[in-house]
Write a structure and sequence with these properties.
Layout: E1 4-8, E2 29-30, E3 33-34, H1 35-45, E4 50-55, H2 60-65, H3 70-76, H4 86-94, E5 96-101, H5 108-114, H6 116-119, E6 124-127, E7 131-134, H7 141-152, E8 155-161, E9 171-179, E10 182-190, E11 201-209, H8 213-218, H9 230-240, E12 243-247, E13 251-254, H10 258-277
Parallel strand pairs: 1-4, 1-6, 4-5, 8-12
Antiparallel strand pairs: 2-3, 6-11, 7-13, 8-11, 9-10, 9-11, 10-12
Length: 280
């Protein structure tokens, strides 16, 4: 149903300086894999096979990661070290990869609009690699949302409850509860104050968007911080048609922050890496 997934990866990652001075934040490793690979694996698990990236200057390491490394492959061929490349080889065999550049940082809405030529006129997923999502039952957030899309055929955002004193960090929604964990959006505010927030239901970095979003973004003026906000475009889409908000199943780590990145590393090490090293 949905074949394409978009990864906006042009941001500077200033909260991780100086580590991100010469390395994309999306290439920071959570144990043994970079953040962006976890994101692509989630998209593949959700049934998507065409990966589109909006990159920027200094992001060539991402392009290189999703390519064949002749020198490395030749160097370790026939040795026990080949097994370390098993996961990325599987990714490369499961998907295609295309890239375009965002020349100016004008917000997430602008980054998504920049990908119009890669996406075309199809519904598509969007994953922000900063948000690492883990699911205990084996179905990733994007897979959960793709299943919902088959039913509703409209844009969908992933949401989670956050403390009231944290709403200023997120886009926040309000809407009619259709059933447990699923809302029809009627309001959406980008990084509101506590008094402005319509709820404590915060949007995280997972979206499914219908292709008419491109025309809406094109006509959306800059909003908060002078950036083109995807929340502003989605609010118009919600009022003119339908946008659903889904309280996903799983655990989300904000790997755009130091604390969240460390929490994610500890979680993956304890719950995935150590278990994979167990004999048998």
């Amino acid at each position: 149903m949905i074949k394409k997934c978009l990864f906006p990866v042009a941001g500077y990652g200033t909260r991780f300086l100086p580590a991100t001075k010469a390395m994309p934040k999306e290439m920071l490793p959570v144990v043994s894999k970079p953040l962006v690979q976890y994101a692509v694996e989630e998209a593949i698990e959700g049934g998507m096979s065409e990966m589109a990236f909006v990159t920027g200057r200094g992001k060539s390491a991402i392009t290189d990661h999703f390519d064949f490394s002749y020198e490395l492959e030749t160097q370790i061929r026939g040795t026990g070290k080949e097994e370390y490349l098993a996961s990325i080889r599987q990714v490369l065999d499961s998907a295609t990869f295309s890239f375009t550049r965002q020349r100016e940082m004008k917000g997430l809405g602008h980054a998504i609009y920049t990908a119009k030529t890669l996406i075309g006129s199809e519904p598509f997923g969007v994953i922000l690699a900063d948000d690492l999502c883990m699911n205990a039952n084996g179905v990733g957030v994007m897979g959960q949302m793709a299943k919902l899309y088959k039913q509703f055929r409209c844009s969908i955002v992933a949401i989670m409850e956050v403390p009231q004193d944290q709403v200023h960090k997120y886009g926040v929604i309000a809407g009619e509860c259709m059933k447990e964990g699923l809302f029809r959006v009627d309001d959406m505010v980008e990084k509101p104050t506590q008094s402005e927030a319509p709820s404590n239901l915060a949007i995280i970095g997972r979206y499914i968007l219908t292709p008419d979003i491109f025309d809406i973004i094109k006509d959306t003026p800059p909003g908060k911080n002078g950036e083109v906000q995807i929340t502003d475009a989605l609010l118009k889409q919600a009022r003119d048609g339908c946008v659903m908000a889904y309280k996903f199943q799983g655990t989300r780590f904000d790997c755009g922050s130091i604390d969240g990145f460390v929490e994610a590393t500890n979680y993956v090490y304890q719950n995935i890496y150590l278990k994979s090293e167990e004999p048998g």
